[in-house]
Each structure stands twice: as C-alpha cells, then as structure tokens.
C-alpha cells in the first residue's frame, strides 16, 4: 500500500512515521517561538523589554530555557505515586499533539483528512484533563490536589459550551470534516453567521487552555502552580509544551472554523504560500488576543467560573443550536442567523455586565458558628 | 426514607488542613496561615506570625538614640520615613527638642511621598493577588521606582533611609529637591489613574472584590484596626486630622472613607488616599522656605532626661506608635512599637471564614501587611 506525502509515493508506515515526526518537530519549534513571542509581547504590555541577552534580540532564550530544563534533575516527591505521577505528563502531552492531525493549513495541506475531523479534535482535546487530575492526585501535595480538582471541574464545565459552539457551526457548515468546513467559507467566514458561537467558543477556549481569566487551576497566587507544583525539569517542561501547543492548536481551530482558515478571502485563487500565510495571520491575531487578555484580566473565582459556564454559556449555546435548527429546517433566510447571533453576543455582554454589578449578599459563613465553638 | 438511605451510604468527608506560607507567593513575605478547608470553602484559619522577628525593640535599648533610627527603617520597610517619624518624635518629646519649620515641612513631604510609594506597592501586589499577570505590578513599580529614586537622591539609600534625626534632619535636601518632587508628583498622578483604569472598573476585579471580606465598623474598632483598613469600614479616623502632628493642621486634605468595609473598599480607600497625599505634598511645597533643619544648639551625643512618651502617627498601614521610656543617658530604657499591621491582622480570621481559598488570598492582600512591622 502506498501513500502520497507531498507528491512522493512512499510506504504507508513510512508515511505515518514521517508525518508524526513532522508534527513533533514543527510543534516543538512553534511552541518555542510562541513562548518567545509571548514573553516579548507581554513585556511590551508591561513596559519591559523581555528577553534580550540570548542570541539576537533574545531569540535563543526559549532554546536556552529548554536545554536548562532538560539538564535539571527529574525530582519525584517521596510520597508520590510513581506510576501515576510519571504517566500524567503523557496524558497531557500526547492528546494535544494528536489534535494536530486533522487541522488544514492550506488547500490539501493537512496531516490527514478525517471525515469526522471536528468530532475527533473535540474528543481528543478533552483527554488532557485526565492528565491534570492524575498529576494533581499523585503529587502528594494539597495544592496540587486542589489544582487538579479545579482543573477537572473547570474542564468538564467548559467542554460542553465549547462542543456545542462547534456543533452549531457544524450545523451551518453541514459537515464535520474540517477541510470541507474551511473550503466552504470561501466567500463568507462562518463568524458572520455564528458570532455568538464564536464568542462562546473563544471564552470556552480560554478556559480549556486554562489561561487567564480562567487559570484557577494553576493560579500562582492561590495554588502556587496547582498540578505542576511538584514537577521539575523535563516533565515540567512537557506540561509547559502541552499548554502552549494547546494554545496554538485551539487558535488554529478557531481560525479554521470561524475565520475561514486559508479559504477566506480569495483562498482558492491564491497559491499555497498565501493560503498558509492567511492561516498564520488569523491564528496569530487570535493568539495575540489571548496574550492581551492574559496581561489585563484578573482571575475569576471558582464559583463564579462554574456559574458563568452553567448559567450563561450553556443556555446561550443551546439557544444558538435551536435557532440554527429552525433556520435550517424551515429554510429561513440566512440573515436571521446573523441577527440572532448578534443579539446573542449583545445579550452575553449584558449578562456579564449585569451579573457583575448586581449587589450580592455576603457569602454565608458555612461553619463559622461551628468552628467558633471548637475554638 | 431517603435520609435513611443517605445516612446508610454516607461517605465520611473530612476537612483538609492547608498550610499556606511561610513560603507561598502571596503571603507577602513570611506570613503563615493554616486554613481548614471544606472543598474550596475556608472553615477556619489560624495565622502564625513571628518568622521575621528580629527583636528590634530590645535592640534599640542597647543602641543610642541615633542608632535606633535604623531599626525603625527595618521594621516598616515599605514606609520607613513614617516609622522613623514616630520614633524621632517620641525622642523629641522626651528630650524637649523644638523642630525647625523647614525640617517639619520636609518631613511631611517625605512621609507623604513614602505613603505614595507604599500604596503603589500595595496596588501592584494586590493586582497580582487578584490574578493580573504582573501588569499591575510593573505599572505600580514604575511609579514606585520614581519615588525611590528621589529618596535615594535625598538620603543616599533606597529603603533604609535613616534620614530623620531627633530635632530635625540629617542633612539638607538636594538643591533641585522641589523640582524633583514636582516631577515625581506628575508621574504619580498618572500612575494613580493608570491603576484606576487597569483595576477599578474591571468587571472581574469588581466581581472578585465586592462584598468579600466585609468587616463592620464596630468589629474593626474592636479589633483595634487603623489606617485605610479601618477607614474602609466607614470610620473617619485619621491621626493626621484627629491629633495633627508636624504641620498637618495647616494643610487641607480629606479623610477618605469607604462604605461597606469589603476588599474593594480597602483598595479604593488606598487609591483615593494617594490622591490626597499628592494634594498634601503640593501644599507643603508652597509653604517650604529656606531655614535651619536642626535646632541651634544640638549636642553631639544626645542625652535625654528621664521621662516617657507615646507618639503615634498615621503610617500608610495605620497607627504606627512608639512608646519610649528614658531613665536618662543616651539610650532608651524601654522602647515599644505599636504595630498597625499586627492589629489589622487580628481581624483576618473574621473576614476569611466562610469565603473561598482564593478570597483568603485577596483578603490578606487587602489588609496590606508588612511582616517586618508585624514581627518587628
């Protein structure tokens, strides 16, 4: 059996191996670049310079950090569960790279065309939660455990709006194949028809990656690193790698699914290089916005985070799906999608605004009386 | 029936003890609190202090009056001028020294500038506690840095100034002092509104801080709180207004108070207080005139007649008091420091219980403790 890798006919196993090697290599470089860019951008936001000393403009900083981390001792706490502790990293690390398989970068430029690409991506992306819970549980550290449980609760809550938002898009696009979804956006990107789904996806995406304002699992000022607290050296850097790879991939998915990936505008007419550049620009803008949010937003508290997902995002995404269904079944004009979606986004912001400004009663001191008695 | 079933299959749940500190990023130094948590909710908290105890009070008794100034810097290291002020005023009161006008105005300027720099430290650290990734911190530190630069020019040191002397000041300020203060004020004004823009209106910040860690006026007074933490509960108690020292009676400023006494009010109070400090310094600069900075006949070695004095001043964190007993000679017989942070910290337990772990962190942050002062 032979296969086609960029025009070369090779054995299917060789082909698979080559593609896997390519993924790992590209992702590692991309992540190093992302870390460098994030440090530079955040430094600009904070009136600093960021890395400048290692290589020209500090370009080699990520490489130096990676080498340092590889050289560090791989510590394991005495009370940790050795198997779970060491395997946890792979549960975080591998799924992120697996997501890479289905994503189209340009016309016919993807690792594999999967008929259920969107479904596959969503399914694989949720595995890494298992890894975080394992890491938190096995570390024999209470901060790690709290962090791991927070990560689990958060991921389960935000996975649902994330999936529903993508489902809404799939309904409109009429396909679960990522390549087809992108190719279908040649004239109008799906964000125009589904602004609410995009807003929901963006918020849930931040939570899924565990980035500010949803970084309660890691939250330096509370759980002091959460599940990562006991990891050092190469294992810790693999967590880090996975985090940035997830950032890259989710932004890539958002750009493909909502912003038209390589196809919008003029995608089909342009060469592969331009299509690739289109994808890169859209993804880069999304990544930049994530960094921007990171430097300006405080962190939410766990109860606020959960209620926001279950009480706001989830109902809104159900409404979105309902509206999509009605429009598609009764063949109503497409503009209705735009109108309802836009209204939904406005509603989302109003709800956030009102929810914050509503005066809340003081949280009942659950066991204050009891512990007073003990004291 | 259902309750019986539930009881039959009841799983035993336990509270967890969570040790936070002394090595934890958000305990502002070496504070330690042991939280008893039920899931995410804090059921009990036991604070432990003393990790930074250096025996400053006892050490002062073995040093002469001039050397004691350095120890005051090291207790309240974020507002060292204010700490020095209480000490030198106590010595002056026992020794009966008259401080020249110019020295008093300069002291006022430096103390208010120190309040600015201390509160900038607070806004930065508090932003980090709430979870802004370092931005509040760098914005605050840019302004704090300006103030520190000015202090360095005047005193030669960035933190441990040892610039006030019983009777006046160690030496005259630099020639361009007034111009430099104006520059620092201009940038600080910008910095204050930056912090306002970054944090005060942020939805998430409001959601996190409003109605959290409330302490009523009565409770706050009972715990002996003072400073912005007390004023946030709506008690207009400010020693600068109530018992004016230096020239505070001659300048015009408002006492900022909060309404509910929650974390947000404590933040808001400090931010508004910084604006008042800017106002005070501007007035001081107008009144600053050339003149002596020490009394005419100062002895080389200060010998203080027997007597005692308690002097309290309004430091950035509250009432910083120094109780001084002299039995004659060149060193105090007994020195006691009344720490504002220690008293403010007493209320921590009341504020934290029933809230979430993340709230415990910001409540502690909102009290704005300096461990050097708590432990002395």
How would you explain this protein's 3D organization?
The complex is a heterodimer of chains A (375) and B (376). With 375 residues, chain A is an all-alpha fold. Chain A has a two-stranded antiparallel sheet. The longest helix of chain A is centred in the N-terminal third of the chain and has 34 residues. Chain A is globular and about 65 Å long. The C terminus of chain A is likely disordered. By secondary structure, chain B is an alpha+beta fold. Chain B has one domain: Orthogonal Bundle (Cytochrome-c3 Hydrogenase, chain B). Chain B is 50% helix and 12% strand. In chain B, the strands form 3 sheets. Chain B has a 3-stranded antiparallel sheet. In chain B, helix 5 runs antiparallel to helix 15. The model of chain B has no long low-confidence stretch (mean pLDDT 86). Chains A and B meet through helix 6, helix 11, helix 12, helix 13 and helix 14 of A and strand 1, strand 3, helix 5, helix 6 and helix 8 of B.
How is this structure best summarized?
Chain A has 375 residues and is mainly α. Chain A has 14 helices and 2 strands; from the N terminus they run ββαααααααααααααα.
The major pleated sheet of chain B works out as:
3 strands, antiparallel
> Percent helix among the residues of chain B?
40-55%
Mean pLDDT of chain B: 86
Tally of distinct domains of chain A: 2
The number of domains of chain B: 1
Question: Which class do the helix and strand fractions of chain B yield?
Answer: alpha+beta
Helix content of chain A: 55-70%
Q: Which stretches of chain A of 5+ consecutive residues score pLDDT under 50?
A: 365-375
Order of strands side by side in the largest beta sheet of chain A? 1-2
CATH class of chain B: Mainly Alpha
Would you spell out the secondary-structure blueprint of this structure?
The complex is a heterodimer of chains A (375) and B (376).
Chain A lengths: L1 E4 L2 E4 H34 L15 H11 L10 H18 L17 H9 L2 H11 L3 H32 L4 H6 L6 H4 L1 H15 L23 H25 L14 H25 L5 H29 L4 H23 L10 H7 L1
Chain B lengths: L1 H7 L7 E5 L11 E7 L2 E8 L7 H6 L3 H11 L4 H16 L5 H30 L4 H21 L8 E2 L2 E2 L7 H24 L2 H7 L7 H6 L5 H4 L7 H4 L20 H25 L19 E9 L2 E9 L7 E5 L1 H7 L1 H5 L4 H11 L3 H5 L1
Antiparallel strand pairs in B: 1-2, 2-3, 4-5, 6-7, 7-8
């Amino acid at each position: 059996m032979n296969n086609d890798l960029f025009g070369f006919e090779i054995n299917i196993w060789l082909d698979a191996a080559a593609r896997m090697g390519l993924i790992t290599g590209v992702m590692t470089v991309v992540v190093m670049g992302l870390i460098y860019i994030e440090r530079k951008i955040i430094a600009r936001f904070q009136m600093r310079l960021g890395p400048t000393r290692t290589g020209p403009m500090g370009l080699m900083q990520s490489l130096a950090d990676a080498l340092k981390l590889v050289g560090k001792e791989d510590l394991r706490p005495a009370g940790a569960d050795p198997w779970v502790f060491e395997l946890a990293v792979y549960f975080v690390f591998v799924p992120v790279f697996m997501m890479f398989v289905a994503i189209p970068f340009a016309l016919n430029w993807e690792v594999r065309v999967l008929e259920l690409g969107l479904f596959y991506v969503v399914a694989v992306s949720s595995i890494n939660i298992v890894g975080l819970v394992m890491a938190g549980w096995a570390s024999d550290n209470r901060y790690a455990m709290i962090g791991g449980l927070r990560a689990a609760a958060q991921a389960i809550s935000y996975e649902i709006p994330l999936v529903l938002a993508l489902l809404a898009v799939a309904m409109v696009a009429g396909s679960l194949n990522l390549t087809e979804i992108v190719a279908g956006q040649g004239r109008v990107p799906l964000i125009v028809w589904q602004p609410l789904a995009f807003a929901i996806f963006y918020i849930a995406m931040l939570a899924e990656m565990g980035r500010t304002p949803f970084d309660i699992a890691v939250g330096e000022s509370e759980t002091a690193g959460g599940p990562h607290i006991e990891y050092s050296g190469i294992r810790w850097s693999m967590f880090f790698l996975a985090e940035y790879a997830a950032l890259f991939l989710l932004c890539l998915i958002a750009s493909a699914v909502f912003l038209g990936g390589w196809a919008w505008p003029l995608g089909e007419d342009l060469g592969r290089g331009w299509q690739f550049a289109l994808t890169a620009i859209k993804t880069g803008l999304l990544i930049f916005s994530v960094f921007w949010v990171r430097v300006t937003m405080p962190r939410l508290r766990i109860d606020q985070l959960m209620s926001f997902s279950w009480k706001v995002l989830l109902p809104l995404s159900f409404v979105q799906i309902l509206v999509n269904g009605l429009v598609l079944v009764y063949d109503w004009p497409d503009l209705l999608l735009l109108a309802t979606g836009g209204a939904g986004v406005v509603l989302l912001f109003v709800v956030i605004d009102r929810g914050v400004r509503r005066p809340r009663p003081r949280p009942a001191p659950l066991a204050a009386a009891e512990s007073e008695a003990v004291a | 029936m259902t309750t019986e079933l539930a009881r039959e299959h009841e799983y035993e749940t336990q509270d967890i003890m969570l040790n936070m500190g002394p090595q934890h990023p958000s305990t502002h130094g070496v504070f330690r609190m042991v939280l008893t948590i039920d899931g995410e909710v804090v059921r009990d908290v036991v604070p432990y202090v003393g990790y930074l105890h250096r025996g400053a009070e006892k050490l002062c008794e073995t040093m002469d009056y001039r050397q004691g100034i350095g120890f005051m810097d090291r207790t309240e290291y974020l507002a060292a001028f204010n700490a020095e002020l209480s000490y030198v005023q106590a010595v002056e009161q026992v020794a009966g020294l008259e401080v020249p006008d110019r020295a008093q105005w300069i002291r006022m300027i430096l103390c208010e500038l120190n309040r600015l720099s201390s509160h900038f430290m607070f806004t930065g650290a508090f932003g980090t506690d709430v979870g802004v990734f370092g931005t509040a911190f760098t914005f605050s530190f840019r302004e704090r840095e300006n103030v520190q630069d000015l202090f360095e020019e005047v005193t030669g040191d960035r933190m441990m100034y040892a610039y006030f002397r019983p009777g006046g000041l160690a030496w005259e300020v630099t020639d361009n002092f007034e111009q430099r203060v104006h520059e620092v004020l201009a940038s600080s004004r910008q910095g204050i509104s930056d912090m306002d823009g970054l944090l005060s209106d942020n939805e998430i910040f409001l959601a996190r801080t409003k109605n959290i860690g409330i302490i009523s006026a009565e409770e706050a007074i009972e715990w002996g709180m003072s400073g912005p933490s007390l004023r946030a509960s709506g008690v207009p108690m400010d020693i600068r207004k109530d018992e004016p020292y230096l020239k505070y009676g001659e300048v015009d400023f408002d006492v900022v108070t909060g309404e509910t006494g929650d974390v947000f009010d404590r933040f808001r109070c400090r931010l508004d207080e910084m604006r008042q400090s800017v106002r005070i310094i501007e007035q001081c600069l107008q009144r600053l005139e050339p003149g002596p900075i020490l009394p005419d006949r100062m002895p080389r070695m200060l010998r203080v007649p027997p007597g005692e004095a308690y002097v309290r001043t309004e430091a950035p964190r509250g009432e910083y008091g120094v109780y001084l007993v002299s039995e004659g000679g060149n060193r105090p017989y007994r020195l006691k420091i009344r720490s504002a942070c220690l008293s403010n910290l007493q209320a921590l337990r009341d504020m934290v219980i029933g809230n979430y772990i993340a709230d415990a962190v910001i409540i502690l942050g909102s009290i704005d403790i300096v461990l050097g002062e708590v432990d002395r």
